[in-house]
UniProtKB/TrEMBL annotation, chains A, B:
It comes from Acetobacter cibinongensis. ATP binds at residues 130-131, 157, 219. Its EC number is 2.7.4.16. This is Thiamine-monophosphate kinase. Residues 161-283 form the PurM-like C-terminal domain. InterPro entries: PurM-like_C_dom (IPR010918), PurM-like_C_sf (IPR036676), PurM-like_N (IPR016188), PurM-like_N_sf (IPR036921), ThiL-like (IPR006283). Pathway: Cofactor biosynthesis; thiamine diphosphate biosynthesis; thiamine diphosphate from thiamine phosphate: step 1/1. Mg(2+) 4 binds at residues 38, 83. CDD domains: ThiL. Gene3D superfamilies: PurM-like C-terminal domain, PurM-like, N-terminal domain.
Amino acid sequence: MSGLLRTPPQTDLPAEFVFIKQHFAKLAGPAALDLSDDAAVYTPPPGKDLVIAADAMVENVHFLPTDPPETVGRKLLRCNLSDLAAMGAKPEGWLLTLARPKTLPDTWFAQFCNGLEQDQKIFSLSLMGGDTTSTKGPLVLSLTILGSVIPGQAIKRRGAREGDGLWVTGMIGDGALGLQALLGKLTDASGHLADRYRLPQPRVGLPLSGIASAAMDISDGLIQDAGHLARENGLGVVLHASQIPLSSAAKACGDKWFETCLTGGDDYEILFSVPPEHEATLLQNPVMATVAGPVPVTRIGHFCKQQLGVTVLGRDGAEMTFAHHGWSHL
Amino acid sequence: MSGLLRTPPQTDLPAEFVFIKQHFAKLAGPAALDLSDDAAVYTPPPGKDLVIAADAMVENVHFLPTDPPETVGRKLLRCNLSDLAAMGAKPEGWLLTLARPKTLPDTWFAQFCNGLEQDQKIFSLSLMGGDTTSTKGPLVLSLTILGSVIPGQAIKRRGAREGDGLWVTGMIGDGALGLQALLGKLTDASGHLADRYRLPQPRVGLPLSGIASAAMDISDGLIQDAGHLARENGLGVVLHASQIPLSSAAKACGDKWFETCLTGGDDYEILFSVPPEHEATLLQNPVMATVAGPVPVTRIGHFCKQQLGVTVLGRDGAEMTFAHHGWSHL
């Protein structure tokens, strides 16, 4: 009579549950309760503060439909890891919601989750929960990340003072150039630039505490984000174009791509201010540790009071101007 | 020379920042750091576990473009609050990401946030952070909620035993009927059903600890969700149709809408199992407290071992069959 309602447990699973078990179960940590409950139950590390960030990515806005599925998930996770890194927090766990177009096959998600599995190992965190729904629009992914930090040691955007140096990790512009390469607008023989666009290197573990007075990650372009950091501190900032670190692949693109490097976004490097008393040590040995290995750090300018906004000085000492500051999300 | 880069701080704000400050700043709690940082910094209540859930809502899937913006935000928040309520957790804070179509005006978000402001007061929590981006598709909202619970007291889906009663808060089916009313498929003279579709009543504060052996909230239809609860416990469940609580507005729709009530979803009531030794007290006084006031609770069936899946018995004692179990998200 009621066969419809009394199928055995294993075959009774709605498509959503099968989808979650099939792809996401392997990512779930102890807090996730097998991804079968209404919520995760998580015991925070005793005596720590939590650092929590959320970021969304939309197909054709933040990634390309032709991007390998392995890197799409990793890119989103890494953008969020970069937010934790900017505050000096240790990754703990993450939640994911996805609005899925029916046209996207299961095989896409299998690869998407394989990529995330690799990054969970590299950055020592696990999936806590999430939600899956359908959409008639593009794929939308939203990720919330939790990290922990010793109370009082989170590095915030506010804290820089006049005279502090402005420092940056890694190289600037590779991600923005990588997007242009993938769009066919420039040649990227080694594939290094496209790799950096698809797979940013979050600076998790960067020991900012006791060195940096303020920090943020660069996601929307160096100039725009340096402007945010200055504004949050009621200061201006002066950048020296010749000191901005570029990879050899970026240099090979030529001077006409310099503006793209400084304003294109997708760097996920850490921008931080360092009080003068801590700069000597860094200048002597401009390398810092991260969980993924050492990263070079470079002094690219300083904070000032006289002039608000961002001033970029060229090799000749003259101010440079740019058509755009950076990426706007609206 | 570099006017483009040196505008004063207040006019220098990118559109995304203006949007966030204008609408969301009033919702931000202390952890949000004025919504100007990379992440929130949150000190969890000492000695508590955190309960964390994430849910996404998509225009035309979970809400209608004609729904009042005030209720769209509140509905999403309340769906997440319902997840906390099912586990017996106290709300602490939430994060929101939104993928915004350019066609949606600022006035829509002003109303959206006004609704959320009301609910923050009712349910005692505040915004911690989030992200705003654009999309060429429908509006996608993703909300992560954090709650706290005494360690060991979170009520999970697993824990029900053979012979436990199945109980439910409030009334079943009003939300599902409300959607049909808004689609013009039935008459809802009082507007009660549409109200319940647009604004679920999460049972935050329901004192499940020490009473319930397992619990979940009903979002995808009573029958489907009762099936999930039974399956998670390796059991079957028998429901008595005549005991399922219906509002007078639902009863007025007539018997032909009964299946919609049981399978349509959007209830956001709590489904919980109660061991026999705790049932007498509840049967004597079938009302439980929530932060929004007392709510009736009703025994609608029991868990069994003989028969897996869900069995619904009609008034005549015969098994009932239904075309669908409930809502599937994929």
